[in-house]
Amino acid sequence: MFARWSRRHWLATAAAAAAGVSALGSRRGLAAGERVLEEAHSAYNHIVITERADIRTMYFVVDGTYYIESRLDRSHRASLDLDYTRTMMAGYLVQPEVRRLLMIGFGGGQITNYLFHQFPELEIDAVDIDSEVIRLARAYFDVPDDPRYRTHAADGRVFVEQANENTRWDMVMLDAFRGVFVPFHLKTREYYESLKVHLTPAGVVVANLHNATPMYPHDRVTFADVFPTSYAFAAEHSRQTTYVASASKRQLGIYELRANARKLARHFDFDLMGVTSRWYLAADYDPTVAVLRDDFPPGQTPRGAERHNERCDGPKCPYRSQ
After folding, report:
1. How far apart are CA 158 and CA 296, in angstroms?
2. Cystine design at 318: which of 14, 84, 223, 259 (Cβ 3.0–4.6 Å)?
3. Which residues touch 224 (CB under 8 Å, ≥6 apart)?
4. Domain boundaries, the chain
């Protein structure tokens, strides 16, 4: 019997996570010399776009804290500026033949922009619940206007469940942070099962996980409950883990990962082979914790998702530690 988490338990855990660490970095205000290009309030987010020299940043502002959602170095437009985004390319070490990519959580679109340019045949579906995020990404972060790069303003759970039953992706990337946490309905066994249905036989789900938060053990055991094989890669300079869950039952070894890195090296402007050295097997979590399950009945995804997507402002925001 699987344990179920109440929304109260989930919010308390998100608050504890916020007290210690953020997804990509955060600050209580803007840095010296950082100027605001545009500010927007949507149904889901308070978004601020800034620029400082060549660095353009998208922030989500929650309770006075500026959480980095995306960053573009305009002097190196064709590169991945953030460490964790480079580590997420580990998905290609496990599944080197990616023709269709689904990105859940768009931000400034830097990961999908990069892959669009590096792989000329790649078909991309990029999903973000907030149409303002997509608009601002297109305005300030060089998102291409191309038929093989499709953006969708939709909830990442609802989008997958409503996809055509024959739709299959080779890779799904999960990076739908709301400041420090991912909405609960995008972390459950039921969601991962729906993703698995829409993967090709060797398809992978690549997740950006925070290994210093109380949620991390639950994330790991929930993925392991759904997918037969998996791989964890440590980021270079942060407490991020890129977790690659595969639909294939065959576990690859280090020599196969390195062979895939050599085969794909020309597509990347950083040391992809070096990412193979950050694959780790050590258990850095408690495997006895509860698998995460939906807190709403089967068939009620739209309403359940709507509740978890409520805008995070004020004293009830789970980022607040009091």
Report:
1. 14
2. 14
3. 230, 287
4. 7-23+78-310
Residue 225 DSSP class = H
Would you give the DSSP letter of residue 131?
H
Give the CATH number of domain 7-23+78-310: 3.40.50.150
Task: With beta carbons less than 8 A apart as the criterion, state whether 238 and 206 touch.
Answer: no
Indicate the SS3 state at residue 175: coil
CA distance 311 to 124: 27
- At residue 48, the 3 state secondary structure works out as strand
Three-class secondary structure of residue 105 per DSSP? coil
The pLDDT profile of the chain, 322 residues, written as one tens digit per residue, is: 334 444 444 444 444 444 334 445 666 788 889 999 999 999 999 999 999 999 999 999 988 889 889 999 999 888 898 889 999 999 999 999 999 999 999 999 999 999 999 999 999 999 999 999 999 999 999 999 999 999 999 999 999 999 999 999 999 999 997 756 788 999 999 999 999 999 999 999 999 998 888 999 999 999 999 999 999 999 987 789 999 999 999 999 999 999 999 999 999 999 999 999 999 998 899 999 999 999 988 888 888 888 888 755 555 544 333 2
